[in-house]
Structures are given as C-alpha cells and as structure tokens.
Amino acid sequence: MAKIRMYSTAVCPFCLRAEMLLNSKGVTEIEKIRVDLDSRQREEMMNKTGRRTVPQIYIGDTHVGGFEELAALEHAGKLDSLLAA
Fold first, then answer.
1. Mind spelling out the 3-state secondary structure of 18-81?
2. Alpha-carbon gap, residue 35 to 9, rounded angstroms
C-alpha cells in the first residue's frame, strides 16, 4: 500500500473525514503533519501544494488535494488503484 501523508490541524473536520475514508479503504498508517503546531510546516505545505487549507493529502508522491478531491477519487472508482500503487 502507498505511503499516505496528510497535512492537518487538530480541529479540522475535513481532516477527520479524510482519515475515516482512508481507514475504510484499509489504510492503517497515515503520516500526519500538524501545520497548527509548526508554522514552518504550513509554509512547506503552501509551497508544495499552492494551497492554504487542510487537509492536503499525498498518496505516495501524488498530491491528491483535500477531502473533496479524495472523495471524488473514491466515487470515480480510482482511489483503490492509487492506494495500491
């Protein structure tokens, strides 16, 4: 299974929903990078993704985007193959 990295904060409902969706797909390990605890991490996230909001999710080296993009991949039937890569 591909490595999952997620930029998140402690009180982000979309981060929780993304984690629940990934868990339902069998993902047991998510590297969470808390941007609310370290401003350098937020800057890194913004430089890498061009976005300010969380979550920002990477599956392997692929930047998926946020929860809505993750859910769209699932609804399109493309999430499983990305996770398996």
1. HHHHHHHCCCCCCEEEECCCCHHHHHHHHHHHCCCCCCEEEECCEEEECHHHHHHHHHCCCHHH
2. 6
Number of domains in the chain: 1
Q: What is the pLDDT of residue 50?
A: 96
67, 14 contact by CB (below 8 A): yes
Q: What is the pTM of this model?
A: 0.94
Q: Look up the CATH number of the domain holding residue 18.
A: 3.40.30.10
Beta strands across the sheet bearing 31-34: 31-34, 4-8, 56-59, 62-65
Give yes or no for a contact between 2 and 57, defined as CB atoms under 8 angstroms apart.
Answer: no
Q: Cα separation of 3 and 33, whole Å?
A: 13
Cα distance between residue 30 and residue 69, in whole Å:
17
